Amino acid sequence: MAKETIGYKPTKVDLTGQVAVVTGASRGIGRAIALHLASCGAAVGCVATNKEKLEAGTVAEIRAAGGTSEAFAGDLSKVEEVNRIMGEVEQAFGKIHILVNNAGITRDDIGFAMEDDKWHDVIQTNLNGVFYCCRAAARIMMRQRYGRIVNIASVSGIMGNFGQANYSAAKAGVIALTRVFAKELAGRNVTSNAVAPGFIETDMTAVLKDDIKEKAMMLIPLKRFGKPEEIADAVAWVASPGSSYLNGQVIAVDGGMSY
Ligand code: NAP
């Protein structure tokens, strides 16, 4: 943790006996979310593209700390792989109480010059993939009459980011999807909310040029970039039984960037 976050301790919620699925759990924000949910007592199904990496990484870290975790691998932009993975998770753990849709990619380019591939790849993974996961998990959660869907959106989907037509559109779509599921699933005690991170220090932002980082920093009242753990902290509460009256909301965890 940076010196600016001295005194920071993760907020603990009680997730004992719960099963969580975290997509994009191999690194960055998803890894932090998986570790934190596990430290709060949840059994965590970690999803990413490579099973061996997951088992040697996040899953091993959770187990080393005394938690329960399994790795599930596949390409979440493909509907048949999402359905297979959700089936495997249900078979392994019996239930799914929490779904955190965190997996995501960027293919930045200026909108008027953006090639079709860049548009389609990002929409397919960041929007269609989230829909496939929500739909598959919703069927399980509705049967259980309990569930927490937490979608990781972005300030980009709220503000629109220069050079991110594909990504901003996908994340705005995720926000709308979150609100639709909030209305459709509420009668079965399943809530659906989004957490919208600002600029967080991960592989995704490490590749950005210094001038882009400087421009982003100018927009952040707290004058620092966020840490994955700070997103995980908010996600844990939204994913917990304690958020029982929160539904269809977008919580921006962005140091004040989107206001
Ligand atoms: P990251 O470090 O690049 O990690 C992305 C994760 O998504 C990896 O675990 C990756 O798995 C997984 N993934 C990507 N495409 C996948 C696919 N088709 N199937 C399965 N898994 C896939 O990203 P991050 O910065 O932690 O971002 C996590 C989420 O937060 C994303 O939705 C992102 O849009 C959002 N977000 C990030 C920021 C930020 O500043 N970092 C800001 C706002 C929102 P592999 O390791 O197997 O490739």
Strand order of the largest sheet: 3-2-1-4-5-6-7
Number of strands: 7
Strand-residue proportion: 5-15%
Number of helices: 10
Terminal-residue CA separation:
25 Å
Overall 3D shape? globular
- Give the CATH architecture: 3-Layer(aba) Sandwich
Low-confidence stretches: none
CATH superfamily: NAD(P)-binding Rossmann-like Domain
Short description:
By secondary structure, this protein is an alpha/beta fold. It has helices at 28-39, 51-56, 58-64, 79-93, 116-144, 156-159, 165-185, 203-206, 210-218, 228-238, and strands spanning 19-23, 43-48, 69-73, 98-101, 147-152, 190-197, 250-253.
Architecture blueprint of SSEs:
Elements: E1 19-23, H1 28-39, E2 43-48, H2 51-56, H3 58-64, E3 69-73, H4 79-93, E4 98-101, H5 116-144, E5 147-152, H6 156-159, H7 165-185, E6 190-197, H8 203-206, H9 210-218, H10 228-238, E7 250-253
Helix pairs in contact: 1-10, 4-5, 5-7
The structure holds NADP nicotinamide-adenine-dinucleotide phosphate.
Written description of the protein model:
This protein has 10 helices and 7 strands. The chain has a single domain, classed as NAD(P)-binding Rossmann-like Domain (Rossmann fold). It has a 7-stranded parallel sheet, sandwiched between helices. Strand 4, helix 5 and strand 5 form a beta-alpha-beta unit. The protein is α/β, with parallel strands linked by helices and 259 residues long. Bound molecules: NADP nicotinamide-adenine-dinucleotide phosphate.
